[in-house]
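Try it yourself: sequence plus alpha-D-galactopyranose, in.
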Amino acid sequence: MNIVEKFKEIYGDCENVREYFSPGRVNLIGEHTDYNGGHVFPCALTIGTHGAARKRDDKKIHFYSVNLDEVGVIEASLDDLTNHNEYSWANYPLGVVWAFAERGLKLDTGFDMCIYGTIPNGSGLSSSASLEVLTGTILRDLYGFDDLTMTDLALIGQFSENNFNGCNCGIMDQFAVAMGKKDCAIFLDTSDLSYEYANIKLPDAKIVITNSKVKHSLVDSAYNDRRNECATALADLQKVVDIKALGDLDNETFEKYADAIKDETNRLRAHHAVYENQRTIEAVKALKENDIETFGKLMNASHVSLRDDYAVSCEEIDILVEEAWKIPGVIGSRITGGGFGGCTVSIVKNDAVDVFQEELGKVYKEKTGIDAEFYVVEIGDGARRI
Ligand code: GLA
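Structure, out:
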């Protein structure tokens, strides 16, 4: 797909058009910790969202997606930066224009934009964060907002998703998409956005994503519920211990004060948030020591906690993970992303990758009737102009 050619086909010519790319992401460990002041360990993929754009002379903004050709060109205006149902997917890039304006970065003229995404729909590999950071990258470049850093673009993307599109997500996805680096995962401390890159190019193993092809409808509402449950647990804990976030606690201190959390469900949620944060710190330490076996065990423990304590897995995902654990050469396997469907991430020894796909694909089909999809991951760079 040549995105500039497509731009020309849709908008008539391609003079002054610029080309951009923004990746999707997969998280290796550290799930549902990013809104609890904990650590995450995601990486950017080489699949993502391609974009072509140029400024216009008037106030109109035009959006077109090759993936949703049937929707056609969506027209919005700088004079009305509000969310409209009929804008459909374009509410994501429009939300970013709005978030720029909220920061005092107002556009003098509109623009035409054409996108093409290679992230499978509803897979939980962050197509929305990819699109938000793509839009931020385009606006910064076209309008010369050169002071904005990639971290700023991540925060703007998250702000627009929280306040324009109604999902109260944390910072992980936008940060990974903005800051990704080839062959590296990002060890991010969400309490202060400090981060370091860790090489994840494994000599004997590959990272394999398995798409369950299911997406249960409670994704957004249950996500916001989990956030509230954690916030309530934190408020209970703050009566007895001086902390700002659940991520401030180590496991021992949590156990000491856990009884202060009145509701049993909230206690389980907090248990996950605290232990998952500690697991993430431990996992990165193990990786640095080339101890991939320990890394894999921590991934498995992460899944158990997300399934039992955090209750964000589902039958199909549990089948994929639990069957993966039985396959020789699988170092670790877990649900990845927000939950309730989407994908699993596994670390699989090089010589087991083919068998893994065959066997897991077969048993998943037998048990669910669904053909899973597999992607052997390549880790790429963050959003950029091409
Ligand atoms: C979604 C959110 C992220 C993060 C994950 C769970 O992907 O967008 O901010 O909370 O779920 O780890």
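One thing you can check immediately is this: The radius of gyration is 21 Å.
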